Automatic annotation (TrEMBL):
Family according to the record: Belongs to the type-1 OGG1 family.
Stated name of the protein: DNA-(apurinic or apyrimidinic site) lyase
UniProt-listed GO biological process terms: base-excision repair; nucleotide-excision repair
Species assigned in the record: Methanobacterium subterraneum
EC numbers, comma separated: 4.2.99.18
Catalysed reaction, written as an equation: 2'-deoxyribonucleotide-(2'-deoxyribose 5'-phosphate)-2'-deoxyribonucleotide-DNA = a 3'-end 2'-deoxyribonucleotide-(2,3-dehydro-2,3-deoxyribose 5'-phosphate)-DNA + a 5'-end 5'-phospho-2'-deoxyribonucleoside-DNA + H(+)
UniProt cross-references to Pfam families, sorted A to Z: HhH-GPD (PF00730), OGG_N (PF07934)
Keywords on record: DNA damage, DNA repair, Glycosidase, Hydrolase, Lyase, Multifunctional enzyme
InterPro entries: AlkA_N_sf (IPR037046), DNA_glycosylase (IPR011257), HhH-GPD_domain (IPR003265), HhH_base_excis_C (IPR023170), OGG_N (IPR012904), Oxidative_DNA_repair_enzyme (IPR052054)
Amino acid sequence: MISEFSISPQKFKGSLNLSLTINSGQTSQPPWKKGNFYFQELIMIDDAPCLVKIRHDDADPEGDLEIIAESPENMTEKTIETSIREIFDLDHDLNRFYQFLGDDPKLAPTIDFCQGMRLFKAHDPFECIISSISSANCSIIRWTRSIEDIKRKWGDGYRFSSGDFYTFPSAEVLSNVPEHDLEEMQRAEDNLPDDFVFERNLQACGVGYRAKYIIKTASIVQSKINLQKLSKMKYEKAVDTILELPGVGPKVADCILLYGFGMGEAFPVDVWIKRIIEDLYFPGEELKPQTVREFGMERYGKWAGYVQLYLFHYARKSGLLESLRKK
């Protein structure tokens, strides 16, 4: 099945900058690959594989969002559109958000730098959990390469007209992956050729010390945490649940709940968001990360996650981040 259709800008609330959204470093998933002017990724829709190709002329606010969907199964355009609207948060009213930003002189400048940027929400919440754990103290390039490597080694592969694509492995599969070379060797026992290369273990994917956290997290998700139930929890209960996972502190927990489950009140705080908030609202003071988190959630309310996203991108592009590095 190949389906081609478009979504007019009148059918989503506010502007859209597709490229900025996909490449903004959100830990829901690696950026979608780009080929022949389309961003493309394999997603699962009702347990069926679907290669989604999507493009938008970000310079044209009146331009349609163009979609090509390819799947070995039959699925309706409405079903595909529903998934796309969810992933790119097209039902979120950016115009109202910009009114909120404009009412705060500290936030108003972010609008021009971030126009059309939306949440890039997970199409696989478990992938978001592992992506967020992998991203801790790690560059965007490195953690995205690690996630892509994990998909190639243990995900399910599908061949489409534009190449091979892979799902993210299930919690059951990932919980049984060797952590490092030694464990991989021990499992192979005496069946190792002389030229054997140790590469089918998590540390070989570049996640380093996080490998043990990832394996344990996969085991917990498989046996104790129902991700569908988690998505329906109140934020407070959900964050307590996610904090039970190894390698997950408040910042990573908030990333998971924001990008993986769309909980907009989450306010992830890393060292840079901490410094940005201090510079904008508390010049000359040094705050604890928890204080910054509480400030962001109380001041920004339901917009907290979006504000964090916009503040960080604004700081990167305006020169604020560079000036903070020099302090």
